[in-house]
Every structure is written in C-alpha cells, then in structure tokens.
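If you are new to this repository, start here. Below is one unmodified record pulled from the training split, so you can see the exact layout before writing a loader.
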Amino acid sequence: MRRGDWRNGSMYWRRQAGRVSLWVLIVLGALGGLVLYWYTTPQDAPSWVRSWLPGLPEYTGPLYRWHDDKGQLQVTDKPPKGRPYETVQYRGDANVVPPRGQ
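And here is the target side for that same chain:
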C-alpha cells in the first residue's frame, strides 16, 4: 500500500519497505504452477526440464513375470533365481499390475 505525503505543495507517492508488487507474485505463482505440473506429469515436460526436475525416473526396463510356490503370479523388476520366468517389455505410461483374480 502506498502512502501519500505532501512536500513542496505537491503530493508524491512512495513505497513502503517490505511490500512486493502484484506482478511479481503473479509471475512467481505461474512459474510455481508450471513446475508443479511438470513435476506431477514428467512425461509432458520438455526433455531439458526432465534432466533437472527432481521427479520419478523414466524407468522402462524389463519386468519379469513368474509364479511362486503357491502358484500366485508375480511381476518383479529382477528375475527370480531357480524358476522359469517370462521377460515382459512395457511402455512407460502403461499399468503393469495384473488385475485381481488372474
């Protein structure tokens, strides 16, 4: 908020210390919103942004599908030892968890 002061018969305005301009807050809010959007959806961020954003890694390595001793289907990122398994390739934006009951 500005305060008016009379000097030499004319009124002039001065800024109070510690106040931030509205446009600075708007720009900071817009930048914060953009960074938050890129952080929550890293696949939409440009490649130069993904390198410095602290987000989830773009992991698209293989998965391994196998059955445990009880016959339950397991999907892991490391192959099981001493068991037959199937290597599965998937897209980074795909759901890889099988539905219940399968």
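Two things worth knowing about this chain: Residues 59-102 form one domain. The mean pLDDT is 76.
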